[in-house]
Amino acid sequence: MRDRPFDEVKADMNDGKSVLSVAYNLIRQMQAEASADDLSAEQDTIARNVAGVAYAGAADTTTAAAESFVLAMAMYPDVQKRAQAELDAIVGPSRLPGFSDLDSLTYVRAVVMENLRWMPTVPLGIPHRLIEDDEYNGNHIPKGAIITPNVWAMMHNSDDYPEPETFKPERFIGSDGNINSAIRDPRTIAFGFGRRACPGSDFAISLLSICVASMLHVFDIQAGIDDHGQPVILSSETGGDAIASPLTFPRRMRSRSIQAERLIRDAALDAEEVDLL
Ligand code: HEM
Which among 55, 166, 229, 245 is least buried, having the fewest CB atoms inside 10 angstroms? Predict the structure, then answer.
């Protein structure tokens, strides 16, 4: 997991055909700092470790969050339509959304927040050990005790989030049309707590936001038909151990228009042709 992807990036860079990635950026940055093409043994180890840890922390979590988003869109077609209407108005049909659009895409940002809340990717967080005695709700918790945060319960607390089982991005939008800061932001729960909280949270939110915006801009997502010709029945049930992903998944993704189809093809061609050297 640490060496193989890293060596592939290095080999691609030597062949002049690299795709932008954490490993690529690290290598380039270190080469620039050292004013040399070859990394020292220490730099090489640091870059491998950083890229490896980022991969380990990012791959399964962000994929699971993207999966729950696709599921939610098929289960809640009205949410999907409202987000698409916002994208049509702000971005228009001739291009894909970019990062600079996100500030104006309030509903899409609320979809990302609701996605983190509705199906938390790490439902029981990561256990932490107390380094000193503590007290919670009148209960003494001794130094050394292991605490498991019930992220799922926090995200489904109906005092904070009424009708918690329903995927409802509107809950985060105030009467002025902006994100309502009075509603607890699920990002403060989904990525853990304290000094070991997820260091990739900003990266994850950027990745999820652009993925959500791009997919909704060009695709209609529907439950579809199974292998026996029957409509797929979707549910919010999850499987997995530490990382929760949906047990059911939509089968139908249609491009929204001829223009959308062109954008999908162009993006696929761009991805194949990226040559950053
Ligand atoms: C939806 C996406 C993600 C979710 C839900 C998520 C969630 C979490 C959670 C709950 C923790 C444990 C925090 C704690 O101990 O309280 C964690 C740790 C960590 N995450 Fe993420 N994460 C995500 C994406 C990423 C990404 C994109 C990266 C890297 C680019 C990353 C790297 C890490 C690392 C390195 C740790 C260990 C931190 C430490 O123990 O000091 N994660 N993440």
Answer: 229
